[in-house]
Structures
1.
Amino acid sequence: MIGKLLSDILYVLAYHVVRYRRAVTKNNLANAYPEMSDSKRKEIERAYYHHICDLIIEGIYNLYANPRSIMKRYRFVNREIVNRYYEKGQSIVLMSAHYNNWEYMITSLNYQLMHHGVGVGKPLQDKAVANYITRRRGRFGTEIVDQTNVRQVMQYYHAHHVPVAYMMLSDQSPNDVHKSFWTLFMHQETPFLYGAEYFARKYNMPVLYYEVTKVRRGYYEVRFTPLCENPSEVPQYVITSRYIKMLNETIDRQPEFWLWSHKRWKRTRPEGMELRQLTLN
């Protein structure tokens, strides 16, 4: 109850007073949904700011909550799909996005699954803050890995036959636009990280997409869907294409829960870089 009240107060400050990144959010929505009416986009914008304020409060709560409390708020609906890979001794790649609450997933990953959980992401610039958040995120056993070190981590666990679930949020803006998968996404030229597919193909790790649904304020359900069982046997870019298609469908269902204030389309496709069609088969 207190958390909801704090979030509501934060919404007034962020949306009406500070006007936090409202121009970015408005522009992103307009470009992503050009056929949508202004009033409908405004409705999504306001709902988004309510949601992101909820996420801020939940993010603070996540740093201190016990595992039982988090699992009560973040329920895996069909974890048996994931656990069957563990029983086969297989590591897996879990692909998703900054949609609904991802902090609960990072913190509870190792606790909720049979696999050893590894969260892969970009490091924060402030090292002191980054070290503290990493310790809090990993207090239930999830290993937090900088994306620049993930190659060594995967090599180690593969060599020692440890079944690992690698969580990768693949909707971040890539640092290197020359090593990205460029395609049309929401009517815009968009670079996607290719690392999840690259490593899945290298170690032939099954890939699953997971969608997070907001049941009500503060409560979520996670559902896993296999994207590819044998990555080494499918053509290049199929896994990334399937991921992008499912992400687009997820966002279209309830767009207010994606990270619209993020400058997702700040990159420009280099001259000569191919704009690829999605290859789903």
2.
Amino acid sequence: MEATIVYNRDVALRQLGGGVSRKVLAYNEGLMIVEVHFETGSTGSAHTHPHLQNTYVKSGRFRFTIDGRDVEVGPGDTIAFPSGILHGTLCLEAGTLIDIFAPMRKDFV
């Protein structure tokens, strides 16, 4: 098996609507890295999924609602979401999240 190299500059930013866009970066069956851009005031609607998810705040400020609890995070902060937990976010200050999923999200490719 060979390593897959993904250059960020070569990945198109996909507009999801409502001030949210994303780039699916490197992935294999077991793991995926996704860059998600938010404009101030945009939201990631509350949802669940069977994947494990870790989120790194690259820039901006966000209020996450996780299983009914609100928490604010900023640059350098991280969140580890268990499988099946209800979560969503409100972007308080434009920024970028780096989401890591295990296994990879087939619905994103």
